[in-house]
Amino acid sequence: ENSHDHEVVGMKVKNYVRSSPLIDEQPHKNFKIDVHTHILPPNLPDLKEKYGYGGFISLEHHQPCKARMLVDGKFFREIEHNCYKPAQRITECDQTGVSVQVLSTVPVMFSYWAKPEHCLDLSRYLNDNIAQTVQENPKRFIGLGTVPCQAPDLAVKELRRCVNDLGLAGIQIGSHVNDWNLDREELFPIFEEAERLGAAVFIHPWDMMNAKKMEKYWLPWLVGMPAETTLAACSLMFGGVFDKLPNLKVCFAHGGGSLPGTIGRIERGWNCRPDLCQIDTKTNPRDLCSKFWVDSLVHDKVMLQRCVEVFGEDKIVLGTDYPFPLGEYGDVLPGHVVEEAQFGEKLKRKIYCDNALTFLGVDAAKFAEETESEH
Fold first, then answer.
1. How far is CA 359 from CA 85, 200, 354, 356, in A?
2. Model pTM?
3. Which residues of the chain have pLDDT under 70?
4. Which element (helix H / strand E) includes 360?
5. Contact call for residues 215 and 234 (beta carbons, < 8 A)
6. pLDDT tens digits along 146-165
């Protein structure tokens, strides 16, 4: 469904980093944890041959430092080696002032449409690769796994393996699971187990709604993704999931999508049509906005300020969508909008570091060598 996403990924950072005013004025002043980055293994098995049917991503290393993502031989996206070579990621993090990246798979790899046992097998392969990358660079990377959400019993088992055996901080899941929105009772055990484990759940839009009506202008990414994220957030809020699981740690990508701009309308609907909106919760959705985190990837200082108003100073984390061009990468630096918003040093410290540590359940002492000068 995303085959028209023909962007070239991996714009060079070297040309602008040295002369960037942000780097000159803020020479790695803040310890930065980037909660929203994507990674792939350097190679993928032939999944069509392995599972006996198509629809899966394959990688074709067609030239040095680049690879094509293909779906059944059809071009999907071109990526550069920063998407699958940890050493290159570290080099670029050093150049752009990012101390730690949180690694999660590219959402097209979720594969919720596949047979559950095959999605589990692929999830384990991806999770093992992320875990190995973190283990080899424990002061530079934190990992989030992926699980077969279409089979919640298998998803719960893989979530446990991610946290207990692989040492990952949690999981990344999609904004919906096939025909299920995130309030579906079948999915509740996954969130329940995440709360029990203290695992972080990062929710990323994927498989955008009405994509066939948005075939031009990259609209699935520009319109569909914010709508998907808002659908996911509203499903969890109206579905009573945050009421039932008060200690669940959820973070929505892209600043919560359209939610910061539409919370007034959503609250009005909750108030004026309780017969439709209050069937599973009696908690005002505006009050629930303080129960979860969102990343800072909104590309606009006024909207980031709005996110602070809606979600609170303790619930915004740095996110860049590295290494993809729609993120804070390439011609803009990580934290670019945070700096433009002219927040005070205390709030910037929360966004760049402290809030992420809380969301991820990670002790700052793990990064003591890097952070001792800031502490």
1. 26, 6, 9, 5
2. 0.91
3. 1-30, 368-375
4. helix 355-360
5. no
6. 999 999 999 999 999 999 99
